[in-house]
């Protein structure tokens, strides 16, 4: 092996010179030098208020210096001869000393520039400060995190959920953990339950809610047994005897403990914390384990350095002899005190720890944002996963297709998910990344009805569509505009070599129909939007659908860009740019995609002639307070039946309908819970009388009530108003409808809608005003 000394002879000379100048009393280790290494031994002289003390040390240079810094090892005695086969580290129960004795004294600078080297004299000066602190009875806390376990030998790992941090648990008690699996000879455990006050029913939490979904292979009987502990159940006995689970004692401390080397120090910490009176009950709880098991388990919970709580879990070796006779507390204490202690590395599963690294890069508003993901293929699953990783409150995953093994070469889930619904498989994978994100699945064909599309988007703040299906996305666009839902449409183009992402904020951005119109018109904007497909990417057909070549690398890039754009909009507000093109290959015939690896933004305006998103002829209703009051009374008096009538008013140039009168139902009207039929002759006579002599007024629309609070128009409502809009008899190409909901209960909800020929109906604002035009409360 080539020595760093041979690679960097000048650096070697500098190191030797600096150590000789600053620490002349350290001796160069001759045998190390002969082997092409560099090491020193000697004493560091520490002068403090209590006098002068000498500390024996070994200074070693690692083989990969200068990329790894030199390290200091405190020694019980200096070597009497070389090579240093008789060197014995002096390991103390203090921070910043690793189990093998080496001191960890300098934390690397994450922004350290190339060429900056931590030299031996830097390490020795830090070691002097460490010895000074230890000599004066202080722990040298010089890092932001406690991480006591890092300074102890490792025996296993344990994952704990938020329940273990519950401040309602106090004093101490028992914890249980399930054996999950082993890796490289070390066991890994999942925290199952925890109790306090050394009495299981007194204070109890189990982690089923936070961890069961993450670990579906942990047997149900384990979670059931854990749940039973809260009521004093004892089903854990068989599991303990079968080594399926472990149990341990834990204590609540008022301050951070030092690294623990043996059982005497462990129990001493409990006594120093004033918990000595709990030793009897604590060790009695695990008396069977002390008698029969090779190890005992303990946990210490203590305040962390950021105002929260932290944990140290340890395993105490009890020796190989089984069936020990431990009749008294003294016997049990003595057994534990003789045991050697190793750390069970704590891994915390809490939302704040999961999302810590998002800080500054992701808006905190994401934690209250709900998403609907339309399509969970290779592209959609990537987007959903990244949004959940960013800390999304919830994600609804909508997809009717099943996972096939061939999908896994591009998808985020693997072959083990074959035959599962893609929505389900994606949700299970996302759970492994953020179990605190609420995940729902919708496996119906959303194109089966407009109601299905509405259901897929109801409750979502933002929608992301990656279906890449023209029919689906056109229908989604129409419903989303009507519902006022913001949608991001993302798809791969040219086999993934390019990608398109565009956002539609209703009433602000061009909708999907607008984009199609611009392309059809073939102007400059249309040419920019029209990215020609590469026919060579079609490699086959399956049930009439083309199989298009595409790489997981390309789709992941497009998915990442989509998620990043969504997160930026949440963080910075919706910017003017609403359409982005991306390419990894040059497309010479396209103005925006001539250079590879570029994301090109553009502002695409709404198309004035778009029948989906352009402003309807009527954008708002003003209705007289007296008229609205009359409608409310009629609706309430109908109880659980529907009632209906017509509206009379005028249309202003600003798109506001002024409603000045509304008919009632008439004496021969009929109504049921699902429909109403007005008295036609009565209403016609009422209308003729109301319009007689007043040419400024005309028929402007309809009103009716629903016995429930649902104020959405039914299919019959839509068909009726669309028929009125296209009928010459009504002479009203833009009728409105007001729907009152919940009349039977007396508390009415009211919605207003605008209808026009050739465009979807649109919900519009309404306002009750008095006769003078002032808004009513």
Concise structural overview:
This protein has 777 residues and is an alpha/beta fold. It contains 22 helices and 31 strands.
Radius of gyration from CA coordinates: 37 Å
Give the N-terminus to C-terminus distance in angstroms. Answer: 86 Å
Number of helices: 22
By helix and strand content, what is the structural category? alpha/beta
Global shape: elongated
Number of strands: 31
Strand content: 25-35%
Uncertain residue ranges: none
Q: Kindly report the average pLDDT value.
A: 88
Assembly type: single chain
User: Order of strands across the biggest sheet?
Assistant: 15-14-13-16-17-18-21-22
Estimate the helix proportion, in percent: 25-40%
Largest sheet: 8 strands, mixed
Structure explained in plain terms:
The protein is α/β, with parallel strands linked by helices and 777 residues long. It contains 22 helices and 31 strands. The strands form six sheets. The protein has an eight-stranded mixed β-sheet with strand order 15-14-13-16-17-18-21-22, with helices on both faces. Strands 5-7-6-9-10-11-12 form a seven-stranded mixed β-barrel. It has a seven-stranded mixed beta barrel with strand order 23-25-24-28-29-30-31, surrounded by four helices. Strand 10 and strand 11 (309-317) form a beta hairpin. Helix 13 crosses helix 19. The N and C termini lie far apart (86 Å). 38% of the residues are buried. The mean pLDDT is 88.
